[in-house]
Write a structure and sequence with these properties.
By secondary structure, the chain is mainly alpha-helical. The protein has one domain. The chain is 81% helix and 0% strand. The protein has six helices and no strands. The longest helix has 34 residues. The chain is globular and about 55 Å long. The two termini are 15 Å apart.
Length: 171
């Protein structure tokens, strides 16, 4: 087997590790916080917003875990080459990138759930893409920012999970 093939297989295994581990930890963290948070408010919300992300939390958790896996896999080798402060800054960059990439898709999912609650217009797909992308991009960061302590715990987990995945699959 060539070196290139081994590298591709290793990166794929690392990607699957990041996807599965982040989703598993995020799900466990969500349900632990669900038990102890007042009124079970794990995720934040804005004023007068329909809370579909409370009704379908696993779907909304899976989107950032998907993008985190891709981004962490891309930057894992660089993560190991850095000093602790650089690792923290790279983790922040991974978190910001994950939020930026996943928010539009979370907005599309939210818009899909909103259409299920009311009606599907004749051009439902284009509405979901246009409005979902723009609303998700403009509101997603706020929802994640308001999801305290879930977002803080997730940031800490992101650092250690990236470190674990990078050391586990280093070349």
């Amino acid at each position: 087997m060539s070196t290139y093939t081994r590298t591709i297989i290793t990166k794929f295994k690392q990607l699957v590790f990041f996807w599965s581990a982040s989703f598993t930890i995020a799900t466990i963290g969500y349900y632990l916080l669900y038990v102890i948070m007042p009124n079970h408010w794990v995720f934040g919300t804005s004023y007068r917003m329909f809370t579909y992300h409370w009704q379908h939390p696993m779907l909304y958790i899976s989107i950032p875990c998907f993008f985190y896996g891709i981004i962490a896999t891309i930057f894992s080798n660089k993560f190991l080459d850095m000093k602790p402060l650089g690792r923290i800054l790279l983790t922040l960059a991974i978190i910001v990138s994950t939020v930026l990439f996943s928010s539009p898709f979370g907005g599309m999912l939210w818009h899909y759930h909103d259409m299920q609650a009311g009606y599907f217009p004749y051009n439902w797909f284009s509405k979901m893409v246009e409005l979902g992308f723009s609303w998700g991009f403009s509101m997603g960061w706020l929802i994640i920012g308001l999801s305290i302590p879930y977002n803080i715990i997730g940031s800490i987990v992101c650092y250690y999970l990236t470190k674990k995945g990078a050391t586990l699959f280093q070349n």
